[in-house]
Amino acid sequence: MCGIIGIVGTAPVADRLVESLKRLEYRGYDSAGIAAQVNGALERRRAPGKLRELEKVLDASPLVATTGIGHTRWATHGAPTERNAHPHIAGRVAVVHNGIIENFAELKAELAAEGHVFESQTDTEVIAHLLDAELNTGRPPLEAFKVTLDRLTGAYALAVLIDGQDDLILGARRGSPLVVGWGEDEMYLGSDALAVGPFTQKISYLE
Ligand code: GLU
Questions:
Q1: Distance 71 CA to ligand 1 centre (A)
Q2: What is the pTM of this model?
Q3: For residue range 81-121, what is the model confidence (pLDDT) as tens digits?
Q4: What distance in angstroms lies between residue 112's CA and the mean position of ligand 1's atoms?
Q5: Does the CB atom of residue 73 touch ligand 1 within 6 A?
């Protein structure tokens, strides 16, 4: 079980994403990462090992942003390396995922045949490629996301950023938990109430 946190915010998020991931450490993990909208473009930082390693990467190369997603990974497909750590990015899409995409091999083969180049050994990366391909057909984000979800078999909790969409995080769950936190001027997504606890007590548990 990994951890997910997302913040659509009005104040800097990098430190808050990491603080939230620390509250999810009890779930176990082998690597961690965050992605954020930096001046309208997606950027990410990742590191294998403990969150301290991610903090070192962020100290050396800060992310200054008010919307972002974070993840602690418990590897199921692919070794616990930086390259396999989430978030995974394809084109305009960054995704963090908890769970297993059971039909990833066939989706990967289909996407590869269409020219998509994969960077990781994870099952997760197919989600980013699928959604990016749907966005490229001109579908709006929510519709493209729904079409993407229809292609997936397995269990997931997801948080997704789209390049340039500063005030948007897409989330979905099937089989893995995900909660929505309601803030004053901010919104949150998290694996559980602990993840969003520092920011709000107003929480919806997604069915
Ligand atoms: N199956 C994904 C992976 O191996 C996500 C694992 C998790 O839930 O952390 O990267």
A1: 10
A2: 0.97
A3: 999 999 999 999 999 999 999 999 999 999 999 999 999 99
A4: 21
A5: yes
Tell me how far apart the alpha carbons of residues 33 and 125 are, in angstroms, rounded to a whole number: 14
Q: For the segment 51-86, what is each residue's pLDDT rounded down to a tens digit? A: 999 999 999 999 999 999 999 999 999 999 999 999
Side-chain-facing half-sphere of 42: CA atoms under 13 Å = 20
> In testing the pocket of ligand 1, which one of 81, 107, 123 has its CB within 8 Å of the most ligand atoms?
123
Measured from the CB, is residue 97 less than 6 Å from ligand 1?
yes
Nearest ligand 1 atom, CA 73: 9
Q: Is ligand 1 within 6 A of the CB of residue 123?
A: yes
